[in-house]
Amino acid sequence: MRQPKSAYMPNTTRSLLLAVTLLALSGCELLNASRNEPGSTIGSAPQIKKSLYAFKIKQTIRKGQWLISEHQLHQAIENTDQHSFLTAFYIRHYLFEQKRLAPDLVTFAKKSLQQGNTKTASRCYQTLKKLHTADRLKPEIIKIAKALSIEKVDSNAKQQNILSAKLDKSIQQGQLIESSQLITELQALKLLSKEVLAKIDKAKGVLTHNADLLNEKADLFYRDGNIQLAKSLWEYLLKFDPNNQSIKSKLSRADRVLKNMHELREKPSNKPPIHAANVGNPQTPF
After folding, report:
1. What is the largest CA-CA distance in the chain?
2. Is pTM beyond 0.90 here?
3. Around 285, how many Cα atoms within 13 Å sit in the side-chain half-sphere?
4. What pLDDT does 10 receive?
C-alpha cells in the first residue's frame, strides 16, 4: 500500500534543502577564502592550491559530520510512529555515504600528520571515530590514533619545557604574579615530569619567601608613615595571593588612614588668618 505524500515529503524536502545549503555555503566560503588570501589580490598558484586543499579537507569533515547527524536523525525517526518507507532507505543511504567518505578522511589525516598538522589530523580522526567505516580501514584508523597520541605526548613535553624556562626567568626577576600564573599553566598540563614537579615545588617556596619579604617591607613603610607605598605593596601581594585575609585587613586599614588624611587636608581651619585678626586692632603697628 502506497504511503501518503505527507508522510515522507518533509524528509525528502529537508534533505534536499540541506544539501543545497551546504553547497551554497561551500561556494561562499571558497570565494571569501580567495579574497582574503594575504599577499596579493589573487594569490600565487601554490597559495591557491594550498588554500583549495585545506578547503577540501574542511568540507570533507563537514560532510562527514552532516552524514552522521542525518543518520542519527532518521534512526531516531525510525524509532517513532512518524517513519515512512523512505526512512529505511535514508538510513542505508547515509551509511553507504559514510563508508564512501571515510577513505578520504583517512588520507587527509595521514598526510596532515606527515606535514606536522596535528590539529587537522585530529579533526579528521574525531570525525572518523563516529563514521561507519569499512573493516579494511580500521587498522589505518588505529595507526592514526596511535600517531596522534605520540604527537600529543611530544607536544605536551615541549610545552612543559617552554613554560619551565619562562618560570625560571620569572623567578630570577622576582615577578611574583607572572611566576604564579606560569605555575598554574604548568599544573594544567597532563603527565608532568618529575623534574617539572620538583621545579614547581621549589618555585612555590621561593615565591612564598619573597612574598613574606615584601609584606615585611610594607609593614615597615606603614610604620614610617609611607602609607601609599605600603598600600601599593599590599595591593601587589593581594594579586599574588587573593585569599590572604591578613593582607586584605592591612590594605583596608591603609585605605582608612589615607581617607582620613585626605579629609584632614581638605577640612577648612576654624582659626582666622593673621591679617584678618589684625584688622581693627589699634595696638597693631603699621
Report:
1. 129
2. no
3. 0
4. 52
